[in-house]
Structure formats: C-alpha cells, structure tokens
C-alpha cells in the first residue's frame, strides 16, 4: 500500500514539475513576444544595445537565413537568437544577465550564442565577408588607395597580431596559450586594408607564439609569396616584430630621426592597430578588460564571428558610437614589442626583401 502511494506521489510531483516548466516557458515566450526591440527601442537605443542599426540587423538575419542553417525554433525566433548573441558580443556580459534581459534561461542563452557563432563562421559567410583581394584588379584598387592616403606604393594591406584573453585552458595545453604578457590568450593575426576592413584572420595560435612564427606558418605568407613568384610585386606593411621579406615591408631599425620611409610606414601601419581597437571596443566580449570563458576553439570562432560583424558594419558605413572611439587601446599590444632577429645566414628571401625595401626607400626620397 505504501509503495502505491509513493508511486502516485512521484507521478503527481513529475506532472507538477512539467506544468511549472511549461508555464515558465510560456511566460517567457509571451514576455519575448511583448518586447520587440525593433519596435520598442529607438534607433540609438538599438545601436547602443546591439551595436548594429536596425537596417543592418535585418540584413544580417536575411544573410544568415540564406547562407547558413540557422533557423527559428518552436518557441524562439531566429531574430531573438541573433539578438541574444549580439548582446553578448556587444557587452561581454555572461549568460545569466543576458538571459534575464531577454527572458531566456542561461542554458538556452548559451545554446543560442553557440548557434549564431557557428552561423557567422559558416564557410559561406566567411568567404563573402572576410576576403583578401583575389584578383590583380582588386589588389591594385587597395594599393592605389594606400598610395593616395599614405604615399607608399605597392601596399595591399597591413598586418599585425593582437592578444585576446581567454580562460586558463586544460593543463596539457596551457603552455601554448600563456603569453609574454603573463596571461592566457590567443595571438590573432589580422590583415586589414586602408578602410579598417579585415581581409584575413588567423586565430588558431596560442599566445605563446610570436607574430613572426604565426606569419611564417600562415596561408597568407604562402599566398603573397606565390604572387611574387608570378611577377606581381605587392607587399604588406608590418612592424619590427616581423621578418623583412619581399612581400612584407618592415621599418628600418636604428634609422636616423625623421626618416621618410619609417614615417610613412608608421602612418600607414597605424590602420591595423586602429582596426584591432575598433573591433575590441565595438564588440566588448573581446575587450582587453574581458576574458573569454570558453575553450580555445570556441574563443577562436567568437573572434571570427565578431570580425565578420566588424566588416558588415564597415560595408554599411556605420560610424562607431561614442563609447567605441577609445582608439588608444592599441598601446597594450605595442608594449614590450620584441623585434624579429634573423638567425643563421641571410636567406634569399631576406636579401631580396632588403633589396626591394632599398628600392622603395629611394623611390620615396
């Protein structure tokens, strides 16, 4: 008899728990339906909250629906999923406060951030929004803009690395991510054009790796080398942490003050530093004061996702809102810069790189 009563009580408790779950889900669904950011927020409020204009947000949702598998679920629209992820990218706040703000549980908030991040890093999206100029005409257009603005010919982009803080990885791989800045990070290599548009991202290396090592082991280096081998003489601009190469122009160390080449090089190269600043300030989950609390691979995808959003913002000509204009952020990554030192005998790449740089210097005089 007691066993039957206990079984009946268990059945009743389970039914009540399911009723409570259904009630909470229905209440939250109604709350989400009653708050419509596109209607209830002004344009300025929407941009401050999600870092995109309403027009760009609608465009983003159309692109994700067209090019990826991201879709609405039974209770949550695709738009609400994207808004949840955008709020995380924009604020760097973690999932409980985001869930409360959007009437979404912490668990589901995490799910939606993952789904949207996967969509933004889908190959169809990356191929469309993060592209190094892939034709001679496209590279010539970038080179001409750099020359008009900074007076250096042949430049198709600026390159640098920046550290993005992450939580301590598992013990067996921790040493790969502990940087010389004394925290765990990803050292992310990016190439940008003169308009702060990100042309290439390599976010797979841990903070223990130097900029020069990442470049020498990158597809970007191989691609530029192949252009030179085919007779197209173009180059990136990089700081003294990189090796001088025919396809990568670096500053002259210990040059005389007011050296024309170094001055023009520095003025042009600042665009990559400002690109990192704009990226980290608009998408605060990447900010220097934040730590990404995920495994390195997911952190890498989040950085890629924010890079896609960064380029979409540029394509639409959206100005940074006031709090995003903190461009002095670049100083952190420039501290304790380690100059690249060639080891062993001078290679043919180094010799040819110096010859081309000397020719460029004479052309600028």
TrEMBL record:
One of its GO terms (molecular function) is metal ion binding. GO terms for cellular component: nucleus. Residues 42-121 form the DUF8040 domain. It is found in: Nucleus. Residues 1-17 form the signal peptide. Keywords: Hydrolase, Metal-binding, Nuclease, Nucleus, Signal. Residues 159-311 form the DDE Tnp4 domain. Its main location: nucleus. Its cofactor is a divalent metal cation. It comes from the Eukaryota. Belongs to the HARBI1 family. This is Nuclease HARBI1. It comes from Euphydryas editha.
């Amino acid at each position: 008899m007691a066993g039957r009563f206990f079984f009946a009580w268990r059945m009743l408790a389970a039914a009540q728990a399911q009723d409570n779950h259904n009630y909470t889900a229905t209440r939250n669904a109604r709350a989400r339906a009653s708050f419509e950011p596109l209607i209830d927020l002004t344009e300025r409020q929407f941009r401050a909250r999600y870092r995109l204009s309403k027009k760009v947000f609608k465009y983003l949702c159309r692109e994700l629906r067209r090019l990826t598998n991201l879709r609405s679920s039974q209770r949550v629209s695709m738009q609400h999923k994207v808004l949840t992820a955008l709020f995380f990218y924009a604020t760097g706040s973690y999932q409980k406060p985001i869930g409360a703000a959007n009437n979404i549980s912490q668990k589901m908030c995490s799910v939606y951030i993952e789904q949207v991040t996967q969509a933004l890093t889908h190959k169809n999206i990356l191929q469309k929004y993060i592209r190094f100029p892939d034709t001679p005409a496209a590279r010539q257009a970038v080179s001409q803009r750099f020359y008009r603005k900074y007076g250096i010919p042949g430049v198709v982009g600026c390159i640098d690395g920046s550290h993005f803080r992450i939580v301590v990885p598992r013990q067996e791989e921790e040493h790969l991510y502990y940087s010389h800045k004394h925290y765990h990070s990803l050292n992310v290599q990016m190439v940008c054009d003169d308009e702060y548009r990100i042309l290439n991202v390599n976010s797979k290396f841990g903070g223990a790796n130097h900029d020069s090592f990442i470049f020498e082991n990158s597809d970007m280096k191989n691609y530029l080398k192949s252009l030179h081998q085919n007779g197209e003489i173009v180059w990136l601009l990089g700081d003294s942490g990189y090796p001088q190469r025919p396809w990568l122009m670096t500053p002259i160390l210990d040059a005389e003050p007011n050296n024309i080449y170094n001055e023009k090089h520095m003025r042009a190269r600042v665009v990559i530093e400002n690109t990192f600043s704009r990226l980290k300030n608009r998408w605060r989950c990447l900010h220097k004061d934040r730590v990404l609390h995920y495994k390195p691979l997911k952190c890498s995808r989040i950085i890629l996702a924010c890079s896609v959003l960064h380029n979409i913002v540029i394509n639409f000509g959206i100005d940074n809102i006031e709090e995003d204009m903190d461009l002095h952020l670049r100083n952190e990554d420039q501290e304790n810069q380690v100059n690249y030192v060639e080891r062993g005998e001078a290679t043919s790449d180094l010799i040819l790189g110096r010859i081309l740089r000397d020719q460029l210097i004479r052309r600028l005089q």
